[in-house]
Amino acid sequence: MSESGLRSLLDHAFENLRGASPVPDALRLLVSSLNDVVQPLEQEFVQSDIRPLCLSHPIRELLHEDPYTRRSFLQPRGYPGDAELLDYIYCLSSPTPLDSSLGTEIFAQHMASFACRNVRRRRALVAARLDALPPGSRVLSVGAGHFRESTWSRAVQSRALEVVAVDQDPASLAVVDRENQDLAVSTVRASVLDIIRRPARLGEFSFIYSAGLFDYLDDTLAGRLVSSLSRVLTAGGQLVIANFMPGLPERGYMETFMEWRLKYRTGAQLSALAARFISSDGFWADVHEDGGIAYLTLSSRRTSG
Amino acid sequence: MISYHEALGAIRTALNKMKLEGGLPAGVQPESVGESTKVTSLGLDSSGVMSFVLFLEDVVGVELDLARVQAVDTVGELAGYLADGELLDRSKAKSADDTDPEEP
Question: Is the pLDDT of residue B94 over 70?
Fold first, then answer.
């Protein structure tokens, strides 16, 4: 699309949001049109050529009245997709009376989006995996954020599992500590590099998962993290990794107005990535794709004893 | 301990390895990287910087401080850190240069 074509698209969306059309329709059209523009393009090009045009258009001010879009864009924790932002998606946080009615309407529309629905579904799937573990299992949550799976997992709530939640953000870990203080949940502050370099410091686990971290890691980092985590799996243990897949309908909006860029991978790409960094003799891989998210499960072939 | 020139070579080697693994933006040519190259011009996002640190650690054989790597402005400064274990303190150098002799 030409520059003038993109401007025209944004002008039209701007008028729609200012009242020419109901907000849900206006936003749906904008998100879908932006995605048509962005999907065939490399992220570097979107960042250098598309994003500046979007952000210099007056529509930005309207869209940033939505606290979800605004928080993502401003990145108050210094990185995208922080746990407070996910709390919006999990309906644990919502617009305040200080937010405009337009911002609140935009927010509601986003919460019903494909991406947000499937982030909530991912939380439910992870909680179900936790509930399926044998009592007494040691669990490692990598990039735990606020560890919101906890409240949806009977096994965690009944102290049937011993969970270590790892994150690089102390503010997120403080929430985990505060909200799980009566449970068998402990926290460890560690960066991805810390885990890659010294995984053994975390101990050994029969179930390790990372639900929302690999979307931010390039292949080298992702592969090395898989390798390190696989070394602290007990015999017969499982490592589960989730990653958003290419084709996310909100990608255009996220990469322009939200400054939210993900590393998208299909299940096959996740599986191939793991195979480059760990031996297939030691693990077998199972891929499950659900709602635009790929889930890779690596199961240790080792048996105990 | 490696020399400054060995450190520059190590940086290019690490970038070459990254390039081979598809971890560098298409426009970045490791052989063109010199001491005055701005690290930001390598086009690495936060994940890319961490990967670069891992590649560089593989080459130089020591663990690097991510925060210090993130703080450098140019490839020359990074080489200085690798060679000396010390970064050039740009803020001090700049404030000394900027001092107005007329100011009381």
Answer: no
Angle between helices B4-20 and B75-84 (to 10 degrees): 120
The token duo for A276 is 């480059």
What backbone phi and psi angles, to 5 degrees, belong to B90? Answer: -65, -35
Q: Measure in Å the smallest separation between the Cα of B10 and chain A Cα atoms.
A: 18
Q: Is the dihedral of CA A80, A83, A85, A89 positive or negative?
A: positive
Q: Give ipTM to 2 decimals.
A: 0.85
More confident residue, B97 or B55: B55
Q: What is the DSSP letter of A65?
A: T
Do A220 and B23 contact (CB within 8 A), yes or no?
yes
B43, A224: Cβ pair inside 8 Å? no
Residues of A with a Cβ under 8 Å from any B Cβ are: 44, 79, 191-193, 196-197, 216-221, 224, 261, 263
Residue A271 neighbours by CB under 8 Å, 6+ apart: A285, A287, A296
Q: How far is CA A244 from the centre of its chain?
A: 8
